[in-house]
Design goal:
The complex is a heterodimer. By secondary structure, chain A is an alpha/beta fold. Chain A is about 45% helix and about 25% strand. Chain A contains 18 helices and 25 strands. Chain A has a nine-stranded mixed β-sheet with strand order 5-4-7-8-3-9-10-11-12, sandwiched between helices. In chain A, strands 17-16-18-19-15-20-21-22-23 form a nine-stranded mixed β-sheet, sandwiched between helices. By secondary structure, chain B is of the alpha+beta class. In chain B, β1, α1 and β2 form a beta-alpha-beta unit. Chain B is globular. The C terminus of chain B is likely disordered. The chains are: A alpha/beta, B alpha+beta. Chains A and B meet through β6 and α5 of A and α1, α2, β4 and α3 of B.
Amino acid sequence: MNDRTEVQPPRALVKLPTGIPGFDEISDGGLPAGRTSLIIGGPGTGKTVFALQTLINGARDAGEPGIFLAFEETCEEIRSNASGFAWDIAALERDGKLFFIDAQISLDTLRSGQFDLQGMLETLEAKIKEMGARRIVLDSLDVLLELFADQEVGKQELRRLRLWLNRLGVSGILTARIEAIERGGDLAYPFLLFIADFILLLHYRVTDRVALREMRILKYRGSGFEQNEFPFAIGADGMEVGSFGTAKLDFPVSNEKVSSGIARLDAMLIGGYLRGSSILVTGAPGTAKTTLAGAFAQAAGRRKERTLYIAFDESPNEIIRNLASVRIRLDPLLETGVLQMHGLQSGARSSEENLIRIKSLVEGYEPRCMVIDPLSALVHAGGRLTGLAVAQRLLSLAKRRGITLLITSLMEEADPALEVSKIRVSTVADTWIHLTYMPSGGERNRALTIVKARGIGHSNQVRELVLSDSGVTLSDVYTARGQVLMGALRAEREAEDRNEQERLRAETKQRRRELQAAEAQVASRLKALEFELEIRRSEAERRLEDERLVLERELEARRAALERLEQEERLRQTLARERVAALRAIRHADVEAQTKSSTDQERR
Amino acid sequence: MILFVLGGTYASEEAITNLTTVAEHYLSGRYTLEIVDVRNEPFRAIREGALIVPTLIVNTRKGNRKVVGDLSDSGAILKALGLSMSEQRSHSEQTGEGRDAGD
């Protein structure tokens, strides 16, 4: 043993993943490897679970065998307590990866004089070397320290333990009990705080009769860490830390629409809910939140999509029976296995514990659609702030897996805006549908409003949700003088409207008949006119023809007359020429006769 | 009786001395004592639950009793042996009925 090397050469800090969901995130990688980690907390806060889970995860998943040194309980007690978790301790023990050492210091163990830890450490070192152990748990340290009469000796021995761990490079996880926080939270051995490289405080608070577990890292030598308090739960798989917020928001996004199961609601949402989105349905008791959830589950089941329905504080059978009255039949879907329903009790467990149960159901069944009905039972189980955190985790759990999640939540207020600050879940959900009762005309009717729908154009109108033995549907509502009318008032109004429409229809019919008659009249007149026109046209034509014929004849006559005149002219000319010729002949004869006579005279 | 020790350490050497002194005085030979050095038999120490060294394990008919420490307080040893100091003194003056502390 080299007790003298108090000052260790600075070594790079290596992190030891605990494998506890969420814890490695808040501690930026896990516990310090090869060093001393101290887990402190009041009785029953989960110190042993934390230590054991880290040990088991290391042995099973990280190839780091571990030793559990049990001072407080017997190994059998620890095995039996751990058997409640889904850890196969027996297999790890069989394979030599996990080893329990019964170091219980029973009440009748007597103390006589001085001792130190040297012998124990040598014994442990032999075992560590034999099985190649990398992690060791000492549970709990104060049982060991109680043996030392003198605190100074205890402090010295603890320092020895720390150096020993350091030398072997084995990660030590030590648990120590503190008084409950309510009683001051004092540590019996305050020097533990100075010796450890890492300190985790676990505590446990009871609010509204529900246990709420929280953890906080008090110290982490040489490393950054989240300083806030984180809720955690202990479920079937062990401890899980609520470390939302540090997780990255890179979920798969889809534009695919899935039916709400109510055709008219799909229409309001332009096709339905977005695949992989979260839908919040809020409303007062009896506003048919479960009906909406059931319709969604039924539609999903009928699409052959695995659907998980988690009911709080109401048995699945009750829900099935009630939904059957509005023609939503879930039992056939349950039979085919496409739908699973689980009833959980919210009261007994903290939100985190229920969340963990939901998570393991999701992991076991891998649903595509999921219903949590109602979320408010889960949210209010462990104080409001933590409830919101749990809801956020639930939503991101669904988102990461692309599950379309419908959650219902009880909300008393009529105006959803008033409730926003109370249940802030609505800010996280993608689509928010609010259901209200609207008292009017002596009855209460259900009204549906889409308060928001991320990524969907949607109708802002208020609709009446009508449940009947023939099914679920939405009905348009009447607004009269700024008031939404429903139920009997709506029916009355509808009847009035029907009468009015009947009257209008009759009137229209009559008017149409009149018009038709008028039209016929006009048409026949038109026909008559056309006929007359035809007659006149043919008459005119005939007259024109006659005139044309007359004219033609006249023309012919004139032409003939002209011809005659021309012939006469020609004849006259001929006659004239003949007369001229005759005259010439006459004159010639005359001349000749004269000449003859003259000649005769001369001769004479 | 089995005494788990770590050879060469002060507390262990003291324990051996203290135990043999007391046992000889009160039981005078009517006992068996095995001394186990955990350095040589660490797994036996683990099996027997003798992590703290020194540890004395006394097998009585009623079961095992453990005493941790250097056994400088002989009252604790006697208690483990099922004897009180005054009782034992009177017993040893007679024949001694310290059968409780058998092997």
